[in-house]
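2 proteins. here.
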Amino acid sequence: MKVLLIDDHPLILSALQSVIQGLGSHVSVIGVGSARATRETLKRDSDFDLVLLDLHLGDADGFELLAELRSSYPALPVVVVSASDRASDVIRAIDLGAMGFVPKRASNETLFEALHMVMSGGIYVPPMTLGSERRAEKPEGDTVPSVLHVVGQSALDSGFQTQPALDAIGLTPRQTEVLALLLQGQPNKMIARELGLSVETVKDHVAAVLRALGVSSRTQAVLAVSQMSQQSGGFAAWRKSK
């Protein structure tokens, strides 16, 4: 596995390199400290399996670089590793196409779990982020969809040990297929083509999935499913158990 680390703090970059290299001899890690170096590295060689991106870079806004990477290299998964764990930052990163969001205060085990989930085709967001919004006053301008309050309250009530189960939402097999493609960021037309359905039928299925999850947008659905599926080893593992 070939990993590109992007962080402008030399000590953190070095520490992350050591941690990721600890995954095994099959892992090679290249670290860069700027958006410019990122572009140059990927221009020379874009054959990476994963990118870990810090949001605070000296020469670029991390969110803008995330959007650029997802546009230029759509098959390359990007995981944000940030000092922030604000729900608004998590939501924005996922909305821009990040496959995961790991706070820098997380343990090595949490980072490994997140990377495993992403490399298995899932999406990772930190459970603590959602519940912590209940413990402190929200920063000004920080908006959190209602689903995050629901998931966060469940996490808070249970001591952050369990999340609502995917089994509890009662999706049909077809709705599960639609959700799997929705989580990959596929638009309705592509989902319709993949499943051999009409676009109108797909719209009905997507609406049913959002209602079942208690959310109103695709981004909220991604976050909710990520939270729900972490206890069952990820959405892919949950699907196989059906």
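next one coming up
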Amino acid sequence: MTYPIEKRLMSGLPNYALTSVKYVIAHESGNPNNCGPNALENEIAYMNRNKANAFTSHWVGGGGKIVQIAPVNRVQYGCGPKGNPLSYAQVELARTNDKDQFKKDYAAYIWLLRELAKEACIPVVLDGTGNGIKSHRWITDNLKGTTHRDPFSYLESMGITEEQFKKDILNGLDKSQQTEKDDNTMKFTSTTAKAAVRDFIQQAVDKELINKSWLEKFDNGTMTSGDFEGLKIIIAQRSA
């Protein structure tokens, strides 16, 4: 399943280049006083009024709606001065008290985080080593410069454990999406071919062209053919 992304880019935003493309950040609003049917629109309006201090690229809510309010691949003010220059996109999840609506919001949230990571050519893994999708809590614990610990408390209040969140990020929620992932997992006709690919990735890691997490992805058997094609492009660009 795919979701439409409504673009409502805010005016007057700063336009700073990223230092490096390493992360996609998973947030939630942290606002227990804004859980009604207009929560998504309220949050977007509030962020527009306060964009000089805080803004992210995307909001999710309102029953699975996705609204982009700032460009990706530019600095956003969402996860502190350490994380902002490294984050391709930052995604906020509006709150709700409606469990049925939450299921729709959560499905769109998972889809968007995964899609943005693929778009940025970073691992579709939550809070792992190296590049990938990071929670705001991970930024607080590992990079500092912020104290927020979302989105786990809110997700757990709606029945989603941290372990489930990580699993859903890795595999997606759409069964057909999981089947496609399995079908496209890299297969080799010989151990020699597998060794050659691993050696190629290892050399790129040794030259610090890519993060070690790519080698881990290959070794644990979750690298797809599409991942590898994207990785080759990244390596070629960084070798130039």
